[in-house]
Amino acid sequence: MSACSEYYPTEPSSPVVTTASVPGPQSVQGLETLGQVFDARPAYFLADYEKSLGNYIVDADGNAFLDVYAQIASIALGYNNPKLIEAAKSPEMIRALVDRPALGNFPSKDLAPILQKILDFAPKGQDKVWSGLSGADANELAFKAAFMYYRAKQRGYNAAFSAEENTTVMQNAQPGSPQLAVLSFKKAFHGRLFASGSSTCSKPIHKLDFPAFEWPHAEYPYYAFPLAENEAANRAEDDRCLKIVEDLITSWPTPVAALIVEPIQSEGGDNHASTYFLQKLRDLTLKHGVVYIIDEVQTGVGATGKAWCHEWADIQPPVDLVTFSKKFQSAGYFFHDPLFVPNQPYRQFNTWCGEPARMIIAGAIAQEVTDKNLIQQVSRVGDYLFGKLEQLQSQNPDKFQRLRGQHRGTFIAWDLPSSAQRDALLKSLKQKGCNVGGCAEKSVRLRPTLTFEEKHADILLEALTQAVAELEN
């Protein structure tokens, strides 16, 4: 029995859309009411999570959509997963929700085993974790860890802070508040908070109107596809971008303390980094004493056919920090060097130091992914889906430009000629019962759950075939 059938024996066999448009009248009415107290303008529709099941999300009108977007890539095992419901009813969860421990000062006696389940799923080479509340928070915490580590190397890990540092930091001045930079990449998305916003460079709307740090943005490789037919050109593109990275590190007026990169830029257009590029970034960060941060917020927890996408590159030595969130339903960063623990308490700290309730769910997700061999399933289904998309591409090359994600699980994307055509395709797919997302200006991205199977892929492919044909008319 497949994992999906075991989890969801009554999952719908196909989508059902009964309203003439999406969102339907009940969703529209509900969103208008919600909009009076909450900004509901980005909403696709009003969801009914009680009725949603497995790979299907149901809206307030009773429409059941095959969900190939999965809450912006953040649902790992499907809706109303019985194992996660079981974890939600556990005594540990009751304590975490009702008494929500202030973990820094009053950690619970069951925190260590909760964290161990997360660490059992950690990327290769990482054996420690610090928890946060969201993907953006995870990246901001990683930046803090990187800055403190960078300065500790300069000062000496056990050296006392000087009187001048203690005085100037209260004035937001140097040397207590040093001028340091994080290098990120154009088209990157690392969050919408202040430091993460300064490293984000995908869409203006993400960061308009709030102050930003003067931090550098390097060029991220933009490959020609299929990869196998463009190896020389793509290697040249890697080398071009690597030179820009090194030039920025050595010339930026503010010392570059850290570099953050997504192994696949997700919001910025599903741009892939080669194993060569990711390893060469490691070489550069070691050469110049820069902390290397991999942002696995969207790519982590199995979606690319590895537990963590950067593991495809087998980066040596392991990167310094790996941030996570989304499919793990928790957030934070993994690390291995004990010097990333600040030299004094209360430096990396807040009231809750993460969310133990979410950590419990993360541990349950990790256990199910392992027990059900879901990463192997993702690889199998992804290869099946990609092969079928290649057939559609051969018939409609204009509508499947730069098809990418081969042998990267179900983390698949392609471009349309324009944003208008991409948006029209997504609208048509929704009307046909498939909830699919876009990214960048004209890309379609697939982000199903880890329980997505060939039968689900066939439903999506049929809807895509019809929707693409409609674009031609």
What can you tell me about this protein's structure?
There is one protein chain. The protein is an alpha/beta fold. The protein folds into two domains: 3-44 and 375-472, Aspartate Aminotransferase, domain 1 (Alpha-Beta Complex), CATH 3.90.1150; 91-370, Type I PLP-dependent aspartate aminotransferase-like (Major domain) (Aspartate Aminotransferase, domain 2), CATH 3.40.640.10. α10 packs parallel to α11. The chain has helices at residues 3-7, 25-34, 70-73, 82-88, 91-98, 111-119, 135-155, 163-169, 194-199, 231-251, 275-288, 356-371, 374-395, 419-431, 454-472; strands at 56-58, 64-67, 128-132, 181-185, 217-218, 256-261, 264-265, 271-272, 291-295, 321-324, 331-335, 401-404, 412-415, 434-435, 437-439, 443-446. Strands 3-11-10-9-6-4-5 form a seven-stranded mixed beta sheet, with helices on both faces. Strands 12-13-16-15 form a four-stranded antiparallel beta sheet, with helices on one face. It has a three-stranded mixed beta sheet with strand order 1-2-14. The protein contains 15 helices and 16 strands. The longest helix has 22 residues, at 374-395. Helix content is 38%, strand content 13%. The mean pLDDT is 97.
Question: How does the SSE layout of this entry go?
Answer:
Blueprint: H1 3-7, H2 25-34, E1 56-58, E2 64-67, H3 70-73, H4 82-88, H5 91-98, H6 111-119, E3 128-132, H7 135-155, H8 163-169, E4 181-185, H9 194-199, E5 217-218, H10 231-251, E6 256-261, E7 264-265, E8 271-272, H11 275-288, E9 291-295, E10 321-324, E11 331-335, H12 356-371, H13 374-395, E12 401-404, E13 412-415, H14 419-431, E14 434-435, E15 437-439, E16 443-446, H15 454-472
Parallel strand pairs: 2-14, 4-5, 4-6, 6-9, 9-10
Antiparallel strand pairs: 1-2, 3-11, 7-8, 10-11, 12-13, 13-16, 15-16
